[in-house]
Amino acid sequence: MAPESQIDILAIAAHRDDVEQTCGGTLLAMQAKGCRTGILDLTRGESGTRGTAAEREAEANEAARILKVTRREALDLPDGNVQNTLENRLKITAVLRRLRPRVVILPYWQGRHPDHYTSATLSYEACFISGLSKLDVPGSNAPPHRPYKILYASLYADVRPTFTVDITPFIEQRFQSLMAYRSQYASQPQGGGLFVPEEDIRERTFASARHYGLLTGVRYAEPFVQKEVGLVDDLMLLPVASI
Ligand SMILES: [Zn+2]
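Above: the input record for the complex with zinc ion. Below: its predicted structure, written as tokens.
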């Protein structure tokens, strides 16, 4: 018999602090419903202008505490050079087979940063091969596992979301999880031209969540895309007013 899942929902992202920006409120909302949530960061942030990888690890752990995730792990893919290789797919597959999430949240598959869109394709393919019964994964003896649902966090994508998740009760916590990355966001002189001050990030975070909330009739929300067509059981229970 296959081992039980270690977590219910796994968010995979290229960089520490990506999940905090795109789907941290959703992880909090699902945790509040009793789900075990997790984060897999594919890189460790060694190429950032500010702070070291060790500082970013401490910050990521603090953010994980604020987001109430059951697990947070990081792989060792090179920051700024995430590549869709068999070796990298197998590294992600080993985590998928061990944690056995039902739902996986990925970055959207198009965008400005190559690490982000490459992580989407790389992780999707890892989800696929993770289910292949004859595929041996180095260093892993866990049985095959394919996630049931793959969702794409589309906050930064120029695309109409399939649905949003209401994060109204969790918006402040989500913002605080981002602020845990003090080496990146606290107002400081180094890299001042590249990084926006904390009050701007607050305004941006809340404005964007408000925008997606307005699209679906709630105050604050996070957007997602799913590739599958949705299935409805009861037309009387469909949310979001049409007019
Ligand atoms: Zn990123």
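Notes for the reader.
The mean pLDDT is 93.
Residues 198-215 form the longest helix (18 residues).
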